[in-house]
Amino acid sequence: FHLTGIHLAPKEKLNIPVLFMPHAMKMYKAEVVVHVRKENGDNWTYEFSAGSNKDLNRNIFVAQNGGIEGILWRYPVHGIPEAPQQKLVVVRCQARQRVEQRVEMLLMGVVPDATAVTDARSSDMVNGDNSANTQEVTDGFSATAEFLYELQYQSTEIRSQLESLVGMHLVQKEWDTESGIVTLIFNVVFAPNKPMRNEATLRIQWTAGGAWKFPMQFIATETEVDDVINIEAVGLNKESVVGFNLTSQTR
């Protein structure tokens, strides 16, 4: 859609509303273009040269007298549909023990016709930015069925507590093209060193655009009793002493 005739005073702000209503789990691309010109019809002066910035030249309208008649600002918009939050996944382990658990994640709406990115300008695929702890899944799938996944934490404190205790690895993928359901099976390792109850979110993104979030809860229960210390009394009002060794697990 186009909006014209908007008057903007010097240093005044212009809010441009953008509404996103996806119909499929794929990425949608568009571009917001703002065209500015002087109200009195005058032009801006600018000297063009062979070394002028190409991006700048692409975003200006040159008048016959060599001045600038209009200026464009281009704002690319990427719309990524995100599914409603999925059911809670609970991983439970006794402190100072190690549990290895298979977790199944169902991704709804991965339909074959979403293999191309909907673009208001072109049909080129978008290269997303991958964070350092994001892993790319490509084995056995075509390029349009690649997934990125990462474990997100609510705070840096929770990250510091869980990051070294939790490991996740994708071991199996199945894609039912008729129903549009992708099944991802993860191997989750949880090795807590003390009792705790923390939460994290597994975020999975399809490179064609859709994203799913799975809340996860990691519960470490109390440890077993290490040993029973028996102290035998030698008499009333007399001290009895027993010795035992404590071994540190770290330096």
From TrEMBL:
CFAP47-like immunoglobulin-like domain ranges (all copies): 82-221
Coiled-coil annotated residue ranges, if any: none
Domain of life: Eukaryota
GO biological processes: sperm axoneme assembly
Entry-linked InterPro entries: Ig_CFAP47
Pfam families found in the cross-reference section: Ig_CFAP47 (PF26579)
GO cellular component, one term: cilium
Protein name: CFA47 protein
Species the sequence originates in: Tachuris rubrigastra
Top-level taxonomy: Eukaryota, Metazoa, Chordata, Craniata, Vertebrata
Gene transcribed to yield this protein: Cfap47_5
